[in-house]
């Protein structure tokens, strides 16, 4: 499945579908319910996440789940958002504010919590 640039729809195995129908399509298209082929498309990103986890820079967890979370958060204002679709016509400070919020939120969510010292 890939997002269409010209409209708020997706191209799926069975043709164009609306956003509301995208979730069933995702599950139908993959036996693992993953939209991306992690071995082919996301291997370098997943390795970088795993390396950062090993180094203690990102909290533990399945690297794919971490990647999926960050992607989902980054799509909050994208053309496929089910909340608000930002456009290039908006003032630049709106985009900067959203990018800053995304960066701060991802950093807080994924930074390991220090163990309490006794």
Order of helices and strands: EEEHHHH
How does the major sheet shape up? 3 strands, antiparallel
- Gap from first CA to last CA: 50 Å
| Shape verdict | globular
Strand order of the largest sheet: 1-2-3
Q: Please give the number of β-strands.
A: 3
Q: pLDDT under 50 segments (min length 5)? A: 1-30
Please count the helical segments: 4
Structural class by helix and strand composition: mainly alpha
What percentage of amino acids are in beta strands? 5-15%
Percent helix, as a range, is: 40-55%
Assembly type of the chains comes to: single chain
Radius of gyration: 17 Å
- Give the integer mean of the pLDDT values: 73
Walkthrough of the structure:
By secondary structure, the protein is mainly alpha-helical. The chain has helices at 22-29, 43-54, 63-74, 92-110, and strands at residues 2-3, 9-12, 15-18. Strands 1-2-3 form a three-stranded antiparallel beta sheet, with helices on one face. A hairpin with a 5-residue loop joins strand 1 (2-3) and strand 2 (9-12). Helix 3 (63-74) packs antiparallel against helix 4 (92-110).
Note the main attributes of this structure.
4 helices, 118 residues, 8% strand, mainly alpha, 43% helix, three-stranded antiparallel β-sheet, disordered N terminus, 3 strands
Set out the fold topology:
Blueprint: E1 2-3, E2 9-12, E3 15-18, H1 22-29, H2 43-54, H3 63-74, H4 92-110
Antiparallel strand pairs: 1-2, 2-3
């Amino acid at each position: 499945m890939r997002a269409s640039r010209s409209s708020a729809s997706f191209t799926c195995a069975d043709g164009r579908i609306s956003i509301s129908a995208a979730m069933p399509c995702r599950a139908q298209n993959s036996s693992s319910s993953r939209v991306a082929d992690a071995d082919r498309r996301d291997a370098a990103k997943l390795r970088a996440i795993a390396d950062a986890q090993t180094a203690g820079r990102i909290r533990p967890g399945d690297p794919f789940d971490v990647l999926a979370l960050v992607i989902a958060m980054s799509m909050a204002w994208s053309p496929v958002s089910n909340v608000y679709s930002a456009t290039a016509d908006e003032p630049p400070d709106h985009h900067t504010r959203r990018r800053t919020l995304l960066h701060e939120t991802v950093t807080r969510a994924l930074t390991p919590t220090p163990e309490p010292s006794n």
